[in-house]
Amino acid sequence: MAMNSPVAESSSETRAAKDGVERIRVRQQTVEVVSDSGEGAQKCGQIFGAVSAKMGNGVWTVEIIPAEIQPPPRIPAGASGNRIRIGAKEVTNWGDRTNVCVAFNEQVLLARHRLDALEDDAILLVESMWKDHRDEDIRTEWAAAMEELGARNYRILEVPMEEQCLTVVDSARKGKNMFALGLLCRIFDRDLDLTREQIGHAFRKKSEEVYEKNVKLLELGYAWAEEHLGLRIDVPRELAAENTVVMNGNQAIAFGAVAAGMELAAMYPITPATSVSHQLGEIFHKFGGIVHQAEDEIAAAGVSIGASYSGKVAFTITSGPGLALKTEFIGLAVMTEIPLVVVDVQRGGPSTGLPTKVEQSDLLAAIYGQPGDAPHVVIAPATIEECFHAMITARRIAETFRTVVIVLTDANLATGVQPFARPEIDPAWQGARPDMGPVPEGLKPYDWDPRTGLSRRFIPGQPGGMHTLTGLAHDEESHVAYASDINQRASAMRSRKLAVLHSTLRPPIVNGPDTGDLLVVGWGSTRGAIEEAVERAREEGLSVSSLHLRFLSPLEPGLKEIFRRFRKVMTIEINYSDDPDQPYITEENRRHGQLAWLLRASTLVDVDCWTRVLGEPLRPGVIHDAIRAHMPKEGAA
Amino acid sequence: MSSHSCSLLFPVEEEHEYSMGDYEGALARWCPGCGDHSVLTAMQKLLAKEQLKPEETVFVSGIGCSSRFPHYINSYGFHGIHGRALPVATGIKLHRPDLHVFVVMGDGDCTSIGAAHWLHATRYNVDMVALMLDNNIYGLTKMQTSPTTPQGYRSNTQPLGSFLPSLNPIEATLGVTNASFVAQTAEWMPAHLAATIDAAYRHRGFAFVRILQRCPAYTGDIFQDAVRNPEMIEMLEHPDGIEVPDLHAIYKNVVRHDPRNMEEARRLAENPDRIRVGVFFRDESRPRYEETRHLPLHTTDEKLRILNEELDKYAV
Question: Which CATH number applies to A516-630?
């Protein structure tokens, strides 16, 4: 998997040239486009991100999703849009605060301000029509908002979007987004031909007339900014742009499943996992694949298990609450050694929790959630690119080890959009068709190799392989076990497979020096932000390295040895842990982050943790602060 | 369920005539006198009659006495979890329409913990036989009330008698959109049982059969009157359903019922005056999910070509 080098450089250089145009030169910049739901800010942001990627910038895009489906207009809770971080080099995370924000009204801007999403000196381009609106209430709201925003050093630029758009279209509600795109294209010097091409792609299902109107609005915004905004922001473009693809983590999961040769997915709609099925729904049938929308989460697990049992490995897609419902079936698949891939796109929990927001709180449930001893594999891709490859790895492990593989991603990966190296498809990823030949005489349905626990599975249709698999404790013949020693042996065989898998893994590679004061350990989508923060900390002289784990069950080998080389080890995670300075919290009762819990148990190292559940990806700046606060004290062991 | 799927995978096969004995699995461990034994015998008879290859036949069950069924048949078997036989069977048939799939459930499995799947499997109308072995009680866990337990009947969970009117599974299944085969039979009428299972197998679509049966341990008395008094039974007969003329000497109440007539089927199902056996409803023209969803398999080369085409759309 490609190594990402984070964009740490944040210094900027500002010059006012003779022509009166202010030119800002920066290594990275975060841009937001926010509007009421339905005004198309997301499309504007997506096109801006795609064009930037094509031009050789690193890009990371996240959606800003309103809390309601159809929120009323002009309320902060309705803010909808896109956040695009672009950089000179590869961008691995959503960054810190926003530098440039285009807002279609002052209320959605206020929402971003209140969430502390905007940099103190952010440039805010806001639709000016509300300022002198004929409705007095609106004028009052505008004035109040401007006063609230005035608490910061924002640079607020009023833009007559509506007025301008009405010169081209009858209703500006469907058009401001392309005008805004024009503004951004001028400020960031985007290639207009490329932008037109992307508009064509975005509206490919619409008429030529729609395309032309949108292009006209783009050009209008561009010209307006040329004339009225003496501002250029130059983010150097240092990436070779050829041979990359741009998609979000859920799309990468869907493509990965296809590349892995899987033929059946069963699911029940659940945020934020559902868009995997949307993507599969668009493409899977072209490969002969079936996406089955089951009557519930349990049935989705059952259908995928039935399909896996009778042929190639199938998979099911869910999020936390759905994983809970699938628990009994996962236990059955472990017990009967039916290979199965379960994708859990984690969201905030417990219960309905934060359905659209990121969290990494399903780790222990994924590993230990099944009653009884149910050893199985849990892996977590760290990037959008790894979401693609994780499916291929998962299918292969499930098949080789006759086991369940849970792939843990999260809402950050699911909705983040990033360009990555286009995978060079390897036909071997598809896996062989199941052997349908007669079962050799004497072979048993669970002919466990006593050393490895591995055995060959029989598939219906294979002559001589008839047996009844059962969720009851069973012996090699799949006969119900009535003797206690059989259960002990069978449990050992199922468990042994994890040890065998563990023996095939390589120790993880430390990011930075492999010895030092502090080692930060992470898993899943936080990798880019952690590495960027670690790089900043190292630049200021701190002795910090980081380690990122993909295998959580079994854990990657060599951890104890790596941990020994650091004075302190801590995890950074997006799940809840008690902060040690809180009332009643003692060393004995402190509840740790979920990876910290695992690492403490498996290495007996006193692993510390810093975790937050803010419903958003961790910002590198915030992680940087946490690193500073957790550096081991002088003299401490 | 469709018959005659011939496998072309193995060019020359020795002609082998399967006898009932070829379908015998482990020795059945049900109580003596349990209705499950009759169903097992009827099923083995069907398998031999149709000469189904054991390796191309899958029995899927849930949890309960009746769910031990697959262990006692020599075929592929899937003894899964409580209430969830139907999703597993659906997955098998979606992925492998070439297999003969039979589902065996109890009344707790089907009408209680797995009720959602029962409703939706009926609507999917996947080609399989679904037998619901209904002894009106939870037997394996020792006598708890099930949805089909008669009102007032005492159990360990409701010792004062079942509080609610019992659920009518035939009425319920007939109420589901896209139901294509709904039948009822009784374990103490072996000839009728065999004829019903036979018709269910021959039906292309989801064939739901409720089999009334006695649990000698807990509900031996529930159907005792009906067993002794054929007057309580009414046989629904039709050339498009089933006809068992051999039984006419014993069961005098024979009604001609056209199984295409849904309105009449519902009227008969909800009328409590007699126990009705036979095919209530049958319509093979209803869409079958696994056929609707079936797509030809592609070669690896084709798949890789399409995958690259699809990735092109995301290329920068």
Answer: 3.40.50.920
